[in-house]
Design a protein that fits this description.
This is 30S ribosomal protein 3, chloroplastic. The protein has about 150 residues and is α+β, with helices and mostly antiparallel strands. It has helices at about 50-55, 110-115, 125-145, and strands at about 1-5, 10, 15, 40, 70-75, 80-85, 95, 100-105. The protein has two domains: about 1-55, no CATH class; about 70-145, Enolase-like, domain 1, CATH 3.30.390.140. The protein has three helices and eight strands; from the N terminus they run ββββαββββαα. Strand 1 and strand 2 form a beta hairpin.
Length: about 150
């Protein structure tokens, strides 16, 4: 059986005796798991789809980007907290990469550097840029805290 949606043909699953799908549920509760009594196979679509349509159905794969990293700060009177987060593409927020390191309670810059050295997927260039930005913010915080 073929389904046609706006000129594109889609394959459907048809019952057959040649291949089987086995389901081993974690729960014995029938309201949670449903079983299919007939085995399934995917019907062959190659005969139903013309060469022109095959050309239109190519998959576009985006090149994998390097992870974008940002510094996060907690600005307080006597301390400043610095952390690294990874940006999720398409504006879906961030993922924490490091905890917050507080300066001058401890040497936050050194702790940040040591943490980034344990992450091989962070490029050397990214490490230098992030550490330079952290230095600039710490210096700015010191100037505003003492004035």
């Amino acid at each position: 059986m073929m389904l046609s949606i706006s000129g594109i043909q889609r394959c459907s699953l048809l019952p057959t005796k040649t291949s089987q799908i086995r389901i081993s549920p974690k729960s014995k509760n029938p309201s949670i798991c449903s079983y299919r009594k007939k085995p399934l196979r995917i019907s062959s679509c190659s005969s139903a789809i013309g060469n022109e349509e095959r050309e239109k159905m190519k998959v576009v794969v985006k090149a994998m980007e390097r992870p974008r990293l940002v510094l996060k700060f907690i600005w307080m009177e006597k301390n400043i907290g610095i952390a690294v987060d990874q940006l999720i593409p398409d504006g879906h927020g961030t993922i924490p990469v490091s905890p917050y390191y507080f300066w001058p309670r401890k040497d936050a810059w050194e702790e940040l550097k040591l943490m980034m050295e344990t992450k091989p997927w962070i490029s050397q260039k990214q490490k230098v840029i992030l550490l330079n930005q952290a230095t600039d913010i710490i210096n700015f915080w010191q100037q505003t805290a003492h004035s």
